[in-house]
Amino acid sequence: IRGHYRYHWQSHNVKHSGVDDMVLLSKINEDAIVDNLKKRYMDDYIFTYIGPVLISVNPFKQMPYFGEKEIEMYQGAAQYENPPHIYALADNMYRNMMIDRENQCVIISGESGAGKTVAAKYIMGYISRVSGGGPKVQHVKDIILQSNPLLEAFGNAKTLRNNNSSRFGKYFEIQFSSGGEPDGGKISNFLLEKSRVVMRNPGERSFHIFYQMIEGASGEQKSSLGITSLDYYSYLNQSGSYKVDDIDDKSDFKETMHAMDVIGIEAADRAMVLQIVAGVLHLGNINFREAGNYAAVESEEFLAFPAFLLGIDQNRLKEKLTSRKMDSKWGSALESIDVTLNVEQACYTRDALSKALHARVFDYLVESINKAMVKDHQELNVGVLDIYGFEIFQKNGFEQFCINFVNEKLQQIFIELTLKAEQEEYVQEGIKWTPIEYFNNKIVCDLIESKNPPGIMSIVDDVCATMHAVGEGADQTMLQKLRVQINTHEHFNSWNQGFIIHHYAGKVSYDAEGFCERNRDVLFNDLIELMQSSEIAFIRALFPENLNAEKKGRPTTAGSKIKKQANDLVSTLMKCTPHYIRCIKPNETKKPRDWEESRVKHQVEYLGLKENIRVRRAGYAYRRIFRKFLNRYAILTKESWPTWRGDEKQGVLHLLRSVNMDQDQFQLGRTKIFVKAPESLFLLEETRERKFDGYARTIQKAWRKYVARKKYVQMREEASDLLLNRKERRRHSLNRNFVGDYLGMDDRPELRQFVGKREKIDFADKVTKFDRRFKGIKRDLILTPKSVYLIGREKVKQGPEKGQVTEVLKRRIDVEKILAVSLSTMQDDFMILHEQEYDSLLECVFKTEFISLLARRFEEKTQRKLPLKFSNTLEMKLKKENWGFLSGGGSRQVVFVQGQGDMPVLKPSSKSLQVSIGPGLPKNTREYEKARRRTETTCCYGEQRHFPLPVAHQNGGLKNTNHVANQRNSSHHHNQRHPSSSNATRPFLPSNISQIKDRNTNRPQPNLDCLRVPDQGAAGAHRPSASRPTPGGGRPKPAPKPKPQVPQCKALYAYDAQDTDELSFNADDIIDIIKEDASGWWTGRLRGKQGLFPNNYVTKI
């Protein structure tokens, strides 16, 4: 159905590893699933299906099957046509969006280090590659692809489990036009782990950008930003990890800066971003000491650089880090009190400012990306969700609690749509079904986010609201409240320093220390005022808060914010058609081909893969409501196209019968059709594709004809314009069709050998080349897009072929090296090709065609017009020959004089050649309009014809090229030429032949070149009496009417018809005049044939 073969990396000649789709497993249990995944993983097959769900195992190395070949292989292919691949899922999303006109999304889930971010990048890269578009669309594609390295630099970090762990969540919507071109996009980010700026576990790193800047900044940047070594900064040296094996921070820095440029961030703003990043590092070097019970800056010299980078006063920075303004309300009076902070509070304030600066720069970058891709209206979109995976560390805090909550919500979507909703749908539609049990994690989601009864988040928010002024003891109060209110919940346990939640992925123990403080997530007004006092407008814009506005209600906590974001995300995803990628991490060593059985089995269990397989196996691979099914497959039958008229259910049955689908392969529900096996669906898709392929070929054929016609007509017009008002024209050359290859190069390997293998032949013909003594020598002139070739013949002087004549390349001129082409102003066929070394004088019958093609190729190569010189005295530079004292090129002249007849008479002398030729058609003569229309009709409606030998057009007729060549060979370059006496005084033809012919002809004129019908059309082949009625029996014939007397004229000159609707006649022929016209073209009849003729060739009698 597709017009090319498909090659792919999983050869069918080698042993298959396990099964591609685990629905086909003979046993359905965790051990069988793990064993199948292991077999495939060890043979480098990282993708496996469970029906439409893609399972991806992180290989911890670059795999070879993500290139252009694979993109071409999966584009437009059905899912099971090729081995499992993420490109198949991406292509399915894109095609479904275009066909069903519905938004799509892909939910990528799995624990940290399972390969979710890489999967998201492959999806975005594939969709960007296969979708079309012009420069604007390409700009959007560039932003989509470049947003990844930029956001990874500021939002990803090395953790113990993943060297490039996403420390934020993002939902990337790629927005499309109705034609499927990406013309916009939007990123929603949430839950940036900003605490990583100031603290992290041993062996981990902060965000990549800090290390990239220190390693990759230029000497000038390092000097202006105060950048030294990595271990100089307190924020970086606390975890003892600086380098990562598979990360090159220096080259990544260049990529990050390039990404900012592509997105459209100005150079000044890029510099400000780096200035803030450096400012954060320098803030971390400000330490405090005890001064009584209060904090004091340990070394004030460390205040100068961050104050300078952030554009704030050094003393004010010190003040805001060691004290805080507290508002106190007594009755209606509001007082502000400056409270001096202790060392712990000062460190917290410093870290809060650092975290806020990094978080707001990150939000600025996301906003910049969104502005660069903004679209004023919504059409279609594909969403890609990339969020950090489920996390279980030795010490799990508030961040892990939020991350795992979002993962619980995503797992709930998966359960709702693939397990719960699917089974409920079978019941609603009346489909026979045996229920399958599964764990529904909604109970865990309610434990965390419920309002009534209050869940964990509500209790934490309540504690933060009631103890907002008291930091100490808040965590223990929270823990006590949790024990009282939800200790009996089956998925909750408490311990002396925290609590345990039984997540879908396992039990996680959370440490209560710092829970309330991180949930409060308040940036003190003092720090906002400090940043708003900056001299730098860019920094002031990052803190737009109105501090004078009256505060109403509780402040928004981090927990309530993430809960709202998670529910908004779920709502967005539920409005799309979802697709799923379940990522599995095979080991903790982050090494290829290392397989930890127990770890993989645990992930298989909590991802619910066994239940997923059972549902898919017992259920139906495809379901659609009747209307959408009819819309998609309406093209299969005449009765259903363009719309089915009648009952929708009957229409669906009609389509199924049309492809002979077995009854046991589908069920019809109340509103939907259910198809059991994917193979049955492929039958429908293949038939549909065949139909579209046939129609597409018809459209392509018509379009190609149209383009060819347009290009051909344009070429003819350009050729005519080159000589217009500059050179007289031969009468037969005006309306001649351009053939190009008059030598039949496809059948001439002896000539083809001199031309490049893939070079196209634009023009090929026999010409006469004149040497320095004006001796004419036959040459084959060939033009390709690159060069002009002159090929001659010589006898072989030695070897086994001695004495035989063989082809020899006499000259090759690169098109761009041609300096000019010189021609006379008369109707001759001479031209001179000027080149730096020496010139070539040629006589070419089809010079107009050759020069027009050469001019086009010259402009393509040089972006300049080909210089054409017209003069009746032409100069030719000779080739330098090594003949001793006779060496030296010199020059020759070719002089054109007015003579008689259409054939040139040559008179050579030692240094000049005189060419005498009679007058041709005026210089302003153009191609006849009717001839152009005939050409268009031929090109548009006539099939391309292949003649045994190339043809040349002369005087409206078709002649064999060999005959044309023979004529040229016998007549050219001899002084014994016999000009026609009749041509000497023959008048010029009227110029408006097309108008008169259009008026005089009411019947359509047949295209004789294409159809090969008689001159008078198909009707002209019948006898006039063929349509007479049979006379009545015995009735005498009536007397014939006398023939009407028609005016007549006598031919003064012979005239050869130039078209099929014209008359040819000799001098003294008597022509009946049927109609006279003021244009000069009359209609007449001669020897039974009717046609047009010029009135200045005749006289009335």
Can you tell me about this structure?
There is one protein chain. This protein is an alpha+beta fold. Helix content is 38%, strand content 19%. Among the domains are: 1-64 and 76-84 and 586-619, no CATH class; 399-521 and 557-568, Methane Monooxygenase Hydroxylase, Chain G, domain 1 (Up-down Bundle); 620-689, Alpha-Beta Plaits (2-Layer Sandwich); 986-1022 and 1043-1101, Roll (SH3 type barrels). The chain is built from 33 helices and 38 strands. The longest helix is centred in the middle third of the chain and has 46 residues, at 678-723. Residues 1-15, 929-985 and 993-1035 have low confidence and may be disordered.
Q: Which features would summarize this protein structure in a list?
A:
single chain; 1101 residues; alpha+beta; Methane Monooxygenase Hydroxylase, Chain G, domain 1; Alpha-Beta Plaits; seven-stranded mixed β-sheet; 38 strands; calmodulin-binding; Myosin_TH1; actin filament binding; Kinesin_motor_dom_sf; ANK repeat
Q: Shape from CA axes?
A: elongated
Roughly what is the average pLDDT, rounded to an integer?
A: 82
Can you list the strand order of the major beta sheet?
A: 23-22-21-20-26-25-24-27
Q: Label the structural class.
A: alpha+beta
Report on the biggest sheet: 8 strands, mixed
Radius of gyration: 43 Å
Q: What's the CATH C level of the domain at 399-521 and 557-568?
A: Mainly Alpha
Strand content: 15-25%
Number of strands: 38
Q: CATH topology of the domain at 399-521 and 557-568, anyone?
A: Methane Monooxygenase Hydroxylase, Chain G, domain 1
How many helices? The count is 33
Which regions contain 5 or more consecutive residues with pLDDT less than 50?
1-15, 929-985, 993-1035
N- and C-termini, Cα separation:
71 Å
Query: What would CATH call the architecture of the domain at 399-521 and 557-568?
Result: Up-down Bundle
What is the share of helical residues?
A: 25-40%
